[in-house]
From TrEMBL:
The keyword Coiled coil applies. Pfam families: cNMP_binding. One of its GO terms (molecular function) is intracellularly cGMP-activated cation channel activity. Residues 114-199 form the Cyclic nucleotide-binding domain. InterPro entries: CNG_cation_channel, cNMP-bd_CS, cNMP-bd_dom, cNMP-bd_dom_sf, RmlC-like_jellyroll. It is found in: Membrane. It is a multi-pass membrane protein. Its main location: membrane. It comes from Eumeta variegata. This is Cyclic nucleotide-gated cation channel.
Amino acid sequence: MEKLKGGIFDGPQIRQLMKDTDFIKVMTVPESDAWKSFVLVVENFLGNHKAPNYEEIVQNMLTNFQTIGANMSIKLHYLRNHLDKFPDNLGNYSEEQGERFHQDLKVMEERVEIFQNTEAGFLCELVLRLRPVLFSPGDYICRKGEVGKEMYIVNRGKLQVVGDNGKTVLATLKAGCYFGEISILNMGTAGRGSGRTPSNRFWDIGRTLEPADWRFSFYTNTRIHHELLSVGTECVDDTSTGNRRTASVRSVGYSDLFVLSKKDMWDVLKEYPAARVRLEAIAVKRLEKYKKAPLEKVAMGRCQSTPGLVETTGRVPIEEMELPTVSAGVLGGAPLPLQPLTQPLTQPPPCKDLQLYGASASPLRAASPVASCASSVRSSAAGAGSARGHLDSHEVLECELKRLRERLHTVETENAAMSVKLSQQQWEVDQRYGA
Ligand SMILES: Nc1ncnc2c1ncn2[C@@H]1O[C@@H]2COP(=O)(O)O[C@H]2[C@H]1O
């Protein structure tokens, strides 16, 4: 009954309609074309008989459905993309199996927030990449601090998000809920391997040098060159940071989940940038809820794991070290004078303030027009209260995406320029010392 109310017909009802000669009489021409082509699909593909030209028959039905503006369900997209993968005799497949398939897709389409109001193609691409997995009572699906490689959607069962002690239950998840998205979208606890952020690692490199060595090392020490470049590049490699699980999740009883790998998710997101913005916006909101903190704190958490944004509360912020500009120094001009470092390099305390670096000052700094947009949005979000905050979080994400693209371009260009300069210097050293 529920299905009928929702306009969903099962096999016996469809067969009844196919026999009903009056049914087609109440249709317009395009509708009757669509109906007839559907009947052809039932008779030549979905039942016991698969006609040699079944692909043409299915394609014809899809075209006719599109003509009448029918909202193609995910199942029809599935049909189109995987026509060649259906077994020869679909009639052998029971109603129960069909029902199960229908239910699986229904969970995705209707109950999973991230899949609602997304482009049909995006949803279809994701659904096709989902794998079903089963967990037993007490199984941990993920543990806090691990690198996240998958996200999960609960199809059936009950799970608990637990705190550090494994006892405090932060949330209970049931069918339709999803989890594990924070780390695969790189919004979790920042850090790769050692757990140190790129900005921490700038400081680590700095601390290995005597102040007087800064200028000399920057020009002649290939290790420093390479390390700085690798950290700089990591700043724009936004799949490498913030990838740690923010909590542990365990199965209460048996649970039946769908798993989506990070790689698959990112492969699809590459093709659907609007969906990426939307997913990240939802993740920011969810993080905000988890942390029960005001927006700017959440933005800070994200920024710590966001390439290009660096904490600046250390006693000697890296931008004050006055490294020479790329154009004047690295690209062949005379090195700019460096101010001697009067204070030792120290580890910056936790982020209180955020600053975006401008491209002109150092090869490690980001392009600025979009950066200033992001930072002004951020500061307005901080000042204007929580109602405006939600709107701004979206703007911040959009600005950040733009800025990251520009930053990637800048770092790649600078990387290439520095490599040229490096080879040049190596050649000069070889010439001088006869290596
Ligand atoms: N307080 C919370 N309430 C509900 N879900 C949470 C909470 N904290 C973390 N999670 C989820 O648990 C997941 C653990 O892995 P991730 O950090 O990738 O993504 C996390 C969220 O999806």
